[in-house]
Amino acid sequence: MISCVGVADRTVGELIERRMRAQGDRPCVSAVDGDLTYAQFDTLVEAVAAQLTRRNLVRGELVAVAIPRSALSVAAALAVWRAGGAFLLVEPTLPELRRNELIRDAGVRLVVAAAEQFGDAVRITENDEWCCPAEVTDPAELAYVVYTSGSTGKPKGVLGRHSALLPVVRTAERHFGLRADDRVAMLAPQHVEAALFEMLATLALGAHLCIPNEQQRLPGPELDCFLRENQVSALVATPSRLREMNPDLFPALRVVICGGEDLPPDVARRWAFGRTLLNSYGVSEATIASTYVEIDPDETARVPIGRTCDGSEIAVLDDALRPVPDGMPGELFIGGDGVTLGYLGRPELTAERFVEVGGRRMYRTGDRGVREADGLLYFLGRTDDQVQIGGFRVELGEVRAVLRAHPAVRDCAVREDDGRLVAYVVGGVDSDDTGLRRWLSERLPSYMVPTWFIAVDELPLTSWGKVDPTALRLPAGFTARNDDGGTLSETQAALGEIAADLLGMERFDSADVRADLFLLGMTSSLITHFVRRIAVDLGTELSPVDVFERPTVAELAGVVDRNEKS
After folding, report:
1. I need a labelling partner for 481 at 20 to 30 A (CA). Which of 304, 341, 507, 532 fits?
2. Where are the beta strands (DSSP E) in 318-359?
3. Residue 535 is part of which domain span?
């Protein structure tokens, strides 16, 4: 085996190329488009890079990669590096308007997409709306751009550096314990930073990357089967995902890296027995992972985010940017090798969030935390209105901005309630909120679509004239149940059983058949599981739009029955 990061390796791309030469016959990637060795994968990367070179790719130029999850999508990203560019991974399952917004904002000229059939063919097109891209401080350092939710309603493109990725690989090997004989699952959506960790750390360490299709990556029987059949030994997951999985089903799984949201003690206890469970904290602006801790299953009453990774620094500061004593809460500032170049085309925001602290450039996270006397860091929540929904960071301001753009909405406020988004809308909501759901689902990822829409005459204000979030509550008597005393049909009972299972209900009866599923706890992210279960159990294909438009079991049962008769 060769060592992880050699002194001659300047970038992760060079390290991966060294792996390809040194272990060409070892398995590299398994995906819907085939199983490839490192040598075969190298050939695929070279083929795509050659096509990009023929398109006169300029060094440091940003290229969008919009290919469904596959060996080809990973190869295309590395091919951009080999050709001298930087990549923007665009998740093909995002709403079209969202995809186009990201590509427009990034100012990319070239878009790499898959040919109609999987294989080694790609389609490289020129963006019709391309204009001169925003200036990058150091294009030679630019490795990738990843977008995060923006508080003003505009997503923020984070400029990732090549030099910041090598410490991530070191962390994966030294602190997370990943090895060349591991089989690592790539479960994260391609447009988030966790996917970068999964693919780059795996290949840089010479391990085997296992890529599920879109259905297999979602919690449920298909994911369980995928992990077992591929004997996955290392996994990156959010606590929300782990909560839905049974750790006893995966005997080959030896390392689980948890991040993206707070790790609850009960989830930590269940997953720490019989394997290594690591809790990690990081943000896009500081390149993926800044802290880590191995969880002791016998000490989970309070779960820390750990200590800093190699090359990272975390300071706990007060409002005047002064260090606070151990045991005192403050805002978390991240410094060190992982700090990125800033935001694409947003110099004012970059100056606001990337600040000088004691002569060091640090990123102001907006997260509150505390460092105890033993050196362990603990996450305490947000200082602003960014929240965690299903492991994703969501700027409530972005959801508000898109909702306010609806022609019928005069004003709105959005807050988080027990892991779900609630929208309070002045105008635009009557007896049916389907139009608002559809509007948002066409423009935002599913996890950013509110579960509940509450019609209000006006938004409550503080004495300073600002919206008072403490006065935003669910209305008195707010309920989803409507007992008509009837008997459930066979289809209603089957749908109700699926809904009850997903929503954690003890039973589903006539009191729920005409209830709004979103008021019962259905979320935009759960809809995917719901329609998939309907397809498996009832043999009827429904789309998420069907659920948005007919959000009761009674209505959906009518659709299922009509489909069976047609």
Report:
1. 532
2. 330-336, 354-357
3. 490-565
